[in-house]
Design brief:
Layout: E1 12-15, E2 18-22, H1 25-41, E3 45-49, H2 53-65, H3 70-75, E4 76-80, E5 82-84, H4 94-103, H5 122-136, E6 144-148, E7 173-178, E8 182-187, H6 189-193, E9 197-202, H7 208-216, E10 236-240
Parallel strand pairs: 2-10, 3-4, 3-6, 6-9, 9-10
Antiparallel strand pairs: 1-2, 5-8, 7-8
Helix pairs in contact: 2-4
């Protein structure tokens, strides 16, 4: 059910899954860049990027516009919130796209890049990544977690009927085998709970039914995994274009 939005700017819609901010694509990119720059102004911080066509467009935009400050490039640690079990050189690699689309072009140093260890078997890769996080940050995951939204309502690699849904404790990062799509490495609900803020990029009319179900539909996260974000609504912002937000 939608919450009253009379006290919010015209472009904002308050929902049970967080605030939906309705913007054109470049405005969404500018807002994401602003948030990353703001994080960096407070000191070293971590950002978990997402896969998909919209993040790739953001990378190209960030390089073209120079929207990320020198301070940001010096202070932000870059990750991805989920990953396919493929080499970084693969066109299916989420972190590989970030490297080729933005990190290399902006001269981000290797010490600020934290890909999943995809050279290991899935379970070993997840355990190694979780162990590294436990050493570096035992009680907090990403300062900013960037997610996309699938037409089927999935976020990260939490897919419909995924057995991870509903597990609110345990590792922050795990491996899961997505039927028909192979093994994935993903942040969990426990990891999302430990993120400082969550931003979801949503674009196009094809995403409107999923966004409506997540924000307004009957609660059934096994069917609509994005609904797990309702538990974290105060720290969730959806950057959506008018087509994606049309059903709200």
């Amino acid at each position: 059910m939608l919450l009253p939005s009379m006290f919010l700017p015209m472009s904002d819609i308050a929902t049970s899954a967080g605030t939906v901010r309705v913007l054109i694509r470049e405005e969404s990119f500018a807002e994401l860049a602003r948030r990353i720059n703001e994080l960096a102004s407070g000191g070293p911080a971590s950002v978990g990027l997402s896969g998909g066509s919209t993040p790739k467009a953001f990378y190209a935009w960030a390089v073209r516009t120079g929207a990320l400050t020198a301070q940001t490039l010096a202070r932000i640690d870059w990750h991805v919130s989920d990953e396919r079990c493929v080499p970084l050189s693969s066109d299916d690699s989420n972190f590989g796209h970030a490297v080729r689309g933005m990190l290399d072009a902006l001269g981000v140093p290797a010490a600020r890049r934290f890909p999943w260890p995809v050279e290991l078997a899935p379970a070993e890769a997840a355990a190694a990544y979780e162990s590294a996080w436990a050493r570096r940050s035992p009680s907090k995951a990403f300062d900013l977690c960037v997610l996309g939204l699938g037409d089927d309502s999935h976020i990260a690699s939490l897919w419909p009927q995924c057995p991870l849904i509903g597990r609110k404790t345990g590792p922050r990062f795990v491996a899961t085998e997505w039927p028909g799509r192979g093994w994935r490495l993903t942040i969990t609900e426990a990891g999302l709970a430990q993120c400082g803020a969550i931003v979801v990029l949503v674009g196009g009319a094809g995403k409107a039914p999923a966004l409506r179900e997540i924000a307004c539909g009957a609660y059934d996260p096994k069917r609509h995994p994005g609904q797990v974000l309702r538990e974290h609504a105060p720290k969730v912002t959806w950057l959506a274009d008018r087509e994606a937000a049309a059903g709200l």
